[in-house]
Specification:
about 325 residues; alpha+beta; Alpha-Beta Plaits; Molybdopterin biosynthesis moea protein, domain 2; five-stranded antiparallel beta sheet; three-stranded antiparallel beta sheet; about 45% helix
């Protein structure tokens, strides 16, 4: 009869398995396993079977194995996993798409009742409506200041009531009332806390970023780089157009205030000296719009002052007549 493996043998086997996974996989999801039962964990293992492996264990054992494996192989990148092993956590080694694996893990959540002393992970709201309880049960509602009325021999809650706030501990009265109402307000499962990939560690929110999110973040980064470059007068590709425009504005300001000029400043100076020369250009800039009164008046005045010999009668002669 084969005896049970000793504790030392179990540790050796666990260390060998963890080292094998570290060699075989480059992607790891670090998951919180609070309030996850063995049957639930088995269902998750079955759902991930194929390209993912779940490994649970004591944090001290995992940290020790990772350190020893890093020293043995020279792969210092895996040491980044050690800082993530805090609390009741496990490791999911995978070769699949990280987003798909994370979504698959999230499917296996199980509803749970509100037990006394448990810290609420979410707000608990009791909905209005008929509870099905007889009037003798109104004491529960009175203790919790829940407005009720008797309707057809049963207790009816009048308005929605926030019974427990997220982060608060569940009291005995709240637990008893929720049990009577058949409400299982909490759900538990493996929760992805961090993602490890080829030595890099990042938040799981990164897995759900879209192309639009990336473009927006890139634009914000370019804007910040541009602002910094302009502030310290350091030329970059992003800041160069702004620097050129600002330089042109400064040169133009000097040209306007002095006798110095250059081709691009000549037209501006001409406009500042006599803006009326440019009024006739306004109707062309407004497609289909009516011309300003000043623009309409200018041609009329010019026609009025034209000499008779330049009338339309002279237009009948050709160039060589």
């Amino acid at each position: 009869m084969v005896g049970k493996a000793s504790k030392a043998e179990k540790k050796i086997a666990y260390d060998a398995k963890l080292c094998q996974l570290l060699d075989e996989y480059t992607q790891v999801l670090v998951v919180a396993a609070d309030n996850v039962g063995s049957n639930q964990l088995q269902n998750i293992r079955h759902g991930l079977r194929g390209d993912s492996v779940i490994l649970m264990g004591k944090n001290t054992m995992m940290k020790r194995s990772i350190r020893m494996h890093a020293e043995k192989t020279g792969n210092k990148a895996i040491l980044n996993l050690i800082t993530l092993l805090i609390g009741n956590v496990g490791l999911i080694f995978t070769k699949g798409d990280l987003k798909e694996v994370s979504e698959e893990v999230a499917k296996y959540k199980v509803g749970a009742p509100a037990r006394v002393g448990l810290v609420a992970p979410v707000d608990v709201v009791v909905p209005p409506g008929n509870t099905g309880l007889d009037p003798s049960q109104t004491s529960f509602f009175q203790v919790l200041n829940i407005p009720t009325k008797i309707n057809k021999g049963t207790v009816e809650i009048i308005t929605p009531v926030e019974l427990i706030k997220k982060g608060d501990k569940v009291g005995s009265s709240e637990a008893a009332l929720l049990a009577k109402l058949g409400i299982r307000p909490f759900s538990y499962g493996l929760v992805v806390l961090s993602v490890y990939e080829n030595g890099s560690v990042f938040s799981p929110e990164v897995l759900y970023l879209t192309e639009d999110d990336l473009v927006e973040k890139f634009a914000i980064g370019v804007s910040m780089v541009t602002s910094l470059a302009l502030a310290i007068h350091y030329p970059t590709i992003a800041a160069a157009p702004h620097m050129l425009i600002n330089g042109y504005k400064n040169a133009l300001a000097i040209a306007v205030e002095t006798n110095y000029s250059f081709p691009l400043a000549d037209k501006v100076k001409e406009y500042l000296e006599d803006p009326s020369k440019f009024v006739v250009a306004a109707p062309a800039a407004v497609a289909g719009g009516s011309a300003p009164a000043a623009a309409q008046a200018a041609p009329a005045e010019e026609k009025k002052d034209e000499p008779a010999e330049e009338s339309d009668d002279d237009m009948g002669f050709g160039l060589f007549d």
